[in-house]
Design brief:
alpha/beta; globular
Length: about 250
C-alpha cells in the first residue's frame, strides 16, 4: 500500500495514521521487502503542539511517510472530533512488534542515540530477546552536525532494514527527515527515550498506569525535570476542546 493511501486523520495539520498495530507492522514489513524508505514518527501531543507553533516542524511531519498515534492524547483527540483511530500504537510496543516480525527474516538494525553505555546495553537486551535480529551498528546520540556525514556513511555501508534514532524529539525527527534520502533505510524511526527503557536505566510504566492512560505521569515521577514540558498536555486538550470543529481542517 502506498503511503498516500493510508487512512489518516489530520490533527492540527499533522496526518495521523488510523491503522492499528497489526496493520502498521504488516505495512512496514512490506516496506522492508520493497526497500522503500519510510520515516516513521510516533506522535504525541507535545509533538503536535510543536507542529502548531513551528511551520518547519509541521512541514517535516507532513512529509513523513507514516505518523502513528503514540500518545493517548492524540488517540483521544481523534475520537473527540469524530474521526477515531483504530488504537494507540505506542512507539515502544511498535519497536517490539517490529523485532518479532523481523527476527525470522534476520533483519538488520542500526541503533543511534542516548549515551554509549545506554545504547550498548539496549543493543545487548535486543540481542538476547531477539537472537535472529542482527545489530549492525550502535552509536551514541551525542554528535555535532559536522559528524553527520561520517555517521550517514557508516549507516549506508551497513545497509540496515531498521534505523532506530533515540534523541530528543526536536532533534531526532528533523535529523531523519534531513537525511532520509541519503540513508535509504526502509524503516527510520525516532524512539525518544526507549533506549533508556530497553537498557534498564528507566522502567516502563506498570500495566496499571498504561490502562489508565497515564504513562506520562509515571515517566514524570521518574524524571521530574520533564514537568515544564508536560504542561503542554493540558494546553493541547484545551485547544482540541475549544477548536473541535477546526481540529481536522488545519
Amino acid at each position: 500500500m502506498p503511503a498516500e493511501r493510508i487512512s489518516k486523520v489530520r490533527i492540527f495539520g499533522v496526518p495521523i495514521s488510523r491503522m492499528g498495530m497489526k496493520q502498521t507492522v504488516q505495512y512496514l514489513s512490506e516496506a522492508v521487502e520493497r526497500r522503500q524508505p519510510h520515516q516513521v514518527i510516533t506522535a504525541n501531543p507535545i509533538m503536535v503542539m510543536a507542529a502548531v507553533h513551528d511551520e518547519r516542524y509541521r512541514s517535516m511531519m507532513q512529509e513523513a511517510e507514516l505518523i502513528v498515534p503514540d500518545g493517548t492524547g492524540v488517540v483521544w483527540a481523534a475520537k473527540h472530533v469524530g474521526e477515531p483511530v483504530t488504537e494507540r500504537v505506542a512507539g515502544y510496543d511498535l519497536l517490539q512488534e517490529l523485532m518479532r516480525a523481523g527476527e525470522p527474516k534476520s533483519w538488520k538494525v542500526y541503533m543511534l542515540g542516548a549515551s554509549t553505555e545506554v545504547v550498548e546495553a539496549a543493543a545487548n537486551k535486543l540481542k538476547d530477546a531477539y537472537p535472529g535480529i542482527q545489530i549492525v551498528g550502535c552509536r551514541n546520540g551525542y554528535f555535532t552536525e559536522d559528524q553527520d556525514q561520517e555517521i550517514i556513511q557508516h549507516i549506508v555501508q551497513t545497509a540496515p532494514d531498521l534505523l532506530l534514532v533515540g534523541r530528543s524529539a526536536d532533534k531526532q525527527e528533523p535529523w531523519i527527515a534531513r537525511y532520509k534520502q541519503q540513508l535509504q533505510v526502509p524503516i527510520m524511526m525516532g524512539i525518544g527515550g526507549s533506549f533508556d527503557v530497553l537498557s534498564g536505566k528507566l522502567k516502563r510504566a506498570p500495566l496499571f498506569f498504561q490502562k489508565l492512560r497515564i504513562e506520562w505521569l509515571y515517566r514524570l515521577l521518574q524524571e521530574p525535570w520533564r514537568f515544564k514540558r508536560m504542561l503542554t498536555l493540558p494546553k493541547f486538550a484545551v485547544k482540541v476542546i475549544r477548536e473541535k470543529e477546526k481540529v481536522t481542517k488545519y
